[in-house]
Write a sequence for this structure.
């Protein structure tokens, strides 16, 4: 936090006061003063010249200057000197013109003044010495070196220092490294953004390390970010270091290289600790480094000192939430605050866990006892400009950021401002080039420059991110730009996202929406090459959060084209990637934007995609109404392909709720519409869905034919996702008809294709079917592994209906291995899920599974009850396989009770259904009947 304090500045010397101080220093070095009017006009900060009527430096100005050099606020100085903040304030404002000797001694100690400087300071405080003499004695510099102010003592350590344990451990380990590394000076570059606490950390570490450096510790501010002051020249810094080390001024050579050599000679063979604070760059630091082993140098900088040879880099990040909360509580010093308070966590989060911001708000809480943390958190949360609320005395977070901004080139400054306009959380060079209207190389260069200045982080290779408060600062700066230029910049970025998303989406289409229906676009020149499905998927995943934010921004700023088409382009990727909640939100936003713009085609598209996600998330109550609205719009638009897509979706809804006849009719109608329009992708989709209805109603030959036709169509058009699903469904029919080797081969092909596509949606379905096949072939261990994998993946997707299917299969395996208690729990959980979502076909299957379990435990009456419930559902919806299974279960229950007559009747009914649908289970029932005759 110390570095940030220096950056925003504390009241210091005015230009006239600096002139007088500079003259005093000049006279002290030269041994005499020039005649009036003959002062040298070069080399004195503040423009030292021959103006005799410059104001005389007061003790108030002296105290302000020395406090600023020590990186202390008035409150901190008062605490260190065991005084009240009001007393320090009165002295600095000149209300109290002098101080008692004891007070002066306490202030001198708090300011780390020693020797003659301390004596002169105490005398000046009592009105017995001119303050300029204090500054001259303190500086001990030749003309031109006024800004360099090395001290032989470290600044005061901060009592409230909190956290940074890992960083401290690493840095304190430097002592061991120095002992082991014979001829190398230990150099540690501590970098980080403004306000991160670099100086506070370096000073705290230096105090911990100091005992290991008996030949002295030096602290030198290099003023890269001190308002109104140029960064210290290396030659002036060396002069200050030499004087502080005891070298007479007359023995300090004038040239930089000679001074650097004299400094290396001075500390050769010694063990010194040198802290160089707020460095502008490696050129400023390199001449100041000792030349022999045994010394340690800590350099703090807002820049990444990548060109500083042999330096170990320690980049400070924001505080972890727990440490941030602890810091706020320590600095606020209020008994009613605890680190685990929700409001404390909210405040530190709104501060972006930045120590400087946390410290300022903590002091506000400390000095406003009537404020509650909840009030402060609420105010921050709704503030348009949080930075304006983060201040203490004359310090502010915004001013600290402003000093970093001034270090940038004009091009970097422009990009930084425009980054405040970006709606998403991160950006790469391609998007930055679009935003800034520059080439890709220029964008990369500017981003790297901002990164080097710690104005951006790089959470992933090539992806950059602004800290929340830096984003607000950039947005504030951008508000002063020409609105037309800012509007054009955001427009270029949205165009880039739209065009590139459509290009990527064409590689990951599903049959629910063909991107060929979207307007043809040419991605901008700065767009990345997306020539393969893998590259397209990687880009969509990397940009997923940004695209979502862009859609929200486009909708809020009346850009309906971007708000409706970006979600459409992302639809297939979000579906197969399992990002269903995000897809739901995006399609709702797109639908709202289309309605506001009276875009009927956009509304129809949005409704269709929304219904798809409603079905995938088992919202069977909402999906039919959504599809019906889409169908009416497509009819008004005379769009046959749109109508066919929606009608096919209605068929899937009917199938899921057990209305198989209606489902088959919808798929047949959709198939005819697709055929009339020559849409092969749509035909394949409708055929495959029709095949599922056919095999669930026991028409296995027709189902196999439908799936095979769909597979061939998908292959003809190169639709890999369609091929994967058609293979899954074809393998299921092969398994149901007893072709276990054929099913195994088909499932392997489906899984290979699925892995190549990284299709998270269909993979667990393949695992379920593979597990069922393994169960039928007696490999219970492999089957259990497959079903558990499937269950975990369904849980991650939030697919409750499919979770129930996997749970039921696990229950059947647990029955076969004799773990009846676990089986009961699995079936019970599955049945609860299915009843919640109204999935009747799957309920029939689970009820039959429970009946089979009860028969195993001789609860035959209860077993019959469950099979009869399953039989009622199966006959109502036409689920032939579950009908036969229920009849077989009832027959077995009677057989267990010694009632062969009733058993035989039900088993014969079951056999008839199994034989009608071509199920291999018919053989099992025949054997049972033969045993009871």
């Amino acid at each position: 936090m110390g570095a940030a304090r220096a950056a925003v500045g504390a009241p210091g010397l005015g230009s006239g006061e600096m002139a007088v101080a500079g003259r005093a220093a000049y006279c002290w070095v030269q041994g005499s003063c020039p005649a009036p009017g003959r002062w040298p006009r070069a080399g004195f900060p503040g423009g030292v010249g021959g103006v005799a009527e410059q104001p005389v430096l007061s003790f108030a100005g002296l105290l302000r200057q020395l406090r600023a050099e020590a990186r202390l606020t008035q409150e901190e100085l008062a605490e260190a000197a065991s005084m009240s903040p009001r007393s320090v304030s009165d002295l600095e404002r000149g209300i109290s013109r002098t101080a008692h000797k004891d007070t002066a001694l306490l202030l001198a100690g708090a300011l780390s003044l020693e020797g003659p400087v301390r004596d002169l300071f105490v005398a000046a405080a009592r009105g017995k010495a001119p303050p300029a003499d204090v500054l001259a004695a303190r500086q001990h510099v030749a003309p031109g070196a006024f800004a360099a102010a090395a001290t032989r003592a470290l600044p005061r350590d901060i009592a409230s220092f909190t956290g940074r344990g890992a960083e401290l451990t690493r840095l304190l380990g430097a002592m061991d490294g120095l002992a082991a590394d014979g001829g190398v000076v230990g150099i540690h570059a501590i970098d980080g953004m403004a306000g991160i606490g670099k100086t506070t950390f370096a000073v705290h570490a230096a105090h911990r390390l100091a005992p290991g450096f008996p030949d002295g510790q030096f602290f030198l501010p290099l003023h890269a970010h001190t308002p109104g002051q140029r960064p210290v020249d290396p030659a002036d810094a060396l002069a200050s270091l030499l004087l502080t080390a005891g070298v007479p001024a007359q023995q300090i050579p004038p040239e930089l290289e000679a001074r650097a050599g004299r400094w290396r000679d001075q500390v050769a063979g010694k063990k010194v600790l040198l802290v160089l604070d707020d460095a502008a760059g490696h050129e400023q630091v390199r001449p100041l480094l000792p030349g022999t082993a045994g010394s340690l140098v800590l350099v703090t900088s807002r820049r990444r000192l990548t060109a500083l040879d042999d330096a170990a880099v320690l980049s400070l990040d924001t505080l972890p939430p727990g440490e941030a909360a602890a810091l706020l509580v320590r600095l606020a010093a209020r008994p009613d605050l605890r680190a685990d308070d929700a409001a404390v966590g909210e405040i530190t989060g709104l501060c972006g866990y930045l120590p400087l911001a946390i410290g300022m708000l903590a002091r506000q809480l400390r000095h406003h006892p009537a404020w509650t943390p909840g009030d402060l958190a609420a105010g921050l949360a709704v503030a348009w400009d949080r930075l304006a609320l983060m201040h203490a005395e004359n310090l502010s977070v915004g001013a600290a950021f402003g000093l970093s901004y001034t270090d940038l080139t004009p091009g970097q400054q422009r990009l930084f401002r425009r980054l405040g306009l970006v709606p998403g959380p991160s950006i790469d060079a391609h998007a930055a080039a679009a935003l800034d209207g520059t080439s890709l190389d220029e964008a990369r260069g500017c981003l790297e420059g901002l990164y080097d200045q710690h104005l951006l982080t790089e959470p992933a290779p090539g992806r950059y991110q602004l800290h929340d408060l830096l984003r607000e600062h950039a947005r504030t700066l951008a508000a002063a730009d020409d609105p037309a230029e800012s509007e054009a910049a955001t427009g270029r970025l949205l165009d880039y996202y739209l065009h590139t998303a459509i290009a990527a989406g064409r590689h990951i289409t599903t049959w629910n929406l063909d991107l060929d229906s979207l307007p043809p676009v040419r991605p901008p020149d700065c767009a990345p090459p997306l020539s393969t499905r893998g590259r397209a998927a990687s880009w969509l995943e990397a940009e997923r959060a940004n695209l979502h934010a862009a859609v929200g921004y486009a909708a809020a700023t009346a850009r309906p084209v971007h708000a409706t088409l970006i979600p459409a382009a992302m639809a297939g990727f979000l579906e197969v990637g399992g990002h269903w909640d995000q897809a739901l939100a995006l399609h709702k936003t797109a639908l709202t934007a289309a309605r506001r713009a009276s875009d009927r085609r956009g509304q129809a598209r949005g409704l269709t995609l929304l219904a798809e996600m409603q079905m995938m998330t088992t919202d069977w109550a909402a999906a039919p109404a959504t599809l019906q609205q889409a169908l009416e719009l497509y009819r008004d638009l005379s769009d046959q392909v749109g109508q066919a897509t929606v009608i096919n979706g209605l068929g899937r809804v009917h199938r899921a709720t057990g209305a198989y006849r209606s489902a088959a009719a919808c798929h047949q109608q959709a198939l005819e519409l697709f055929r009339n329009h020559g849409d092969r992708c749509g035909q394949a989709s409708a055929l495959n869905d029709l095949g599922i209805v056919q095999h669930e109603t026991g028409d296995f030959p027709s189902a196999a034919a439908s799936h095979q036709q769909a597979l061939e169509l998908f292959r003809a058009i190169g639709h890999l996702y369609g091929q994967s699903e058609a293979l899954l469904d074809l393998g299921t029919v092969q398994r149901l008809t007893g072709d276990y080797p054929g099913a195994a081969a088909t499932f392997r092909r489906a899984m290979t294709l699925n892995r190549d596509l990284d299709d998270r949606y269909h993979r667990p379905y393949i695992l379920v079917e593979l597990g069922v096949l393994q169960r039928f072939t007696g490999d219970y261990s492999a089957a259990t592994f497959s079903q558990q994998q499937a269950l975990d993946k369904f849980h991650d997707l939030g697919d409750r209906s499919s979770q129930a299917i996997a749970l039921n299969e696990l229950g059947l395996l647990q029955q076969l291995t004799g773990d009846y208690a676990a089986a009961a729990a699995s079936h019970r959980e599955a049945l609860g899920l299915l009843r919640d979502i109204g999935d009747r076909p799957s309920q029939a299957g689970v009820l039959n599974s429970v009946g089979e379990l009860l028969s195993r435990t001789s609860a035959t009456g209860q077993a019959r009850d469950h099979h009869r419930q399953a039989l009622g559902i199966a006959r109502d919806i036409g689920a032939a396989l579950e009908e036969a299974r229920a009849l077989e279960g009832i027959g077995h229950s009677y057989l267990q009770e010694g009632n062969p007559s009733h058993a035989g009747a039900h088993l014969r009914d079951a056999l008839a259904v199994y034989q009608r649908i071509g199920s291999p289970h018919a053989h099992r029932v025949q054997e049972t009947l033969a045993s009871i005759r």
About this structure: The domain at 165-315 is CATH 3.40.50.300 (Rossmann fold). Residues 342 and 354 are 18 Å apart (CA to CA).
